[in-house]
């Protein structure tokens, strides 16, 4: 079984995520154990297979460190990315958990992004269905707020934070001047005004982090060329602490572009990904004390044409993709020859990569970034059932124990079930 990957289809400068699924035979040495069943929820822990050997140590050095204004910047040489190496998911992610979400009608979620914290799963994007909050074992708690345009209502959420310590959920919509604040019961409490020091300016797409203990909010936005800043730090009442002018990071107003963050590091990391306005750029950390950007990773394309690219940060690696553009008809543009790469922070070793799922099989895993230091996948019950059926049908050589576990799991799946969730903590240095 592979975890989901996604690509973007661009229609008239708007970006639409397309999600794909694949399923292959599981290695006979894999083990799966049911740890507990609670109410409507099914929770399983998955241990890694002993299939292919890990190859990261065999990767060549493709990146070096440069010092920029006293800060260390990792520079990956594009022309040194030559081969594609196989890397097991277990090298990047700790023990994988598998959870069946609560089946009650009010808990149904459809396909949507999911966000994890120590004790909660939050699912939603705010287009037609409100966010839904679950315990980590899949039990439904409540919906969060409501869809609409009234006070405390929302449409199309771009970034999310679960603040367990203070019992809050923060939602940042598209094209907004406020962060919406809810309690863990899903009730709207208030909002945090966003201050760009000029009236009537809205955040088109943005990421944020709230530190309630320090009364601070960090914000990074997609810096359309009419906006004066790319990032700033303020207090929760909207008073500006410091700002970073957009400067050379300005881009044309185009919602095909993204501002993205894995939120897998102590500092708020981010990258501005452009599609039509291709340019060489950098992954940054936002220093919230000095209120400045710290360059952390970039790619030197040398004499080659700059590719469409996107950079992400994992606890121990930099990860991303490079691609060309193709036009499939008069209105639709897509990635062409998209290739994923990985670079080890410790030694600069890396290459193009094929990450394979040694927890449940050896098919490639495209999207490993997740959110808040977690790797995640959500799958609909009919898709999961088809994947299991295909494996049982096409791989008669599965050992009896493995086949029995898959048959047992398959027997619990009903097409009317809520979705299933896979998640695992991204590995950090010990």
Structure, briefly:
This protein is mainly beta and 430 residues long.
Q: How are the secondary structure elements laid out?
A:
Layout: E1 5-11, E2 14-20, E3 31-38, E4 41-47, E5 63-68, E6 71-77, E7 84-88, E8 96-100, E9 114-116, E10 120-123, E11 131-135, E12 140-144, E13 146-147, E14 153-154, E15 157-163, E16 168-173, E17 178-183, E18 188-193, E19 206-211, E20 216-221, E21 229-234, E22 240-245, E23 258-260, E24 268-273, E25 282-287, E26 292-300, E27 308-313, E28 317-327, E29 332-344, E30 350-356, E31 364-365, E32 374-379, H1 381-394, H2 400-411, E33 420-425
Parallel strand pairs: 6-26, 7-30, 13-14
Antiparallel strand pairs: 1-2, 1-29, 3-4, 4-8, 5-6, 8-33, 9-10, 10-11, 11-12, 15-16, 16-17, 17-18, 19-20, 20-21, 21-22, 23-24, 24-25, 25-26, 27-28, 28-29, 29-30, 30-31, 32-33
Helix pairs in contact: 1-2
Commentary on this structure:
- The protein is mainly β and 430 residues long.
- The chain has helices spanning 381-394, 400-411; strands at residues 5-11, 14-20, 31-38, 41-47, 63-68, 71-77, 84-88, 96-100, 114-116, 120-123, 131-135, 140-144, 146-147, 153-154, 157-163, 168-173, 178-183, 188-193, 206-211, 216-221, 229-234, 240-245, 258-260, 268-273, 282-287, 292-300, 308-313, 317-327, 332-344, 350-356, 364-365, 374-379, 420-425.
- The strands form seven sheets. Strands 1, 2, 7, 27, 28, 29, 30 and 31 form an eight-stranded mixed sheet that branches.
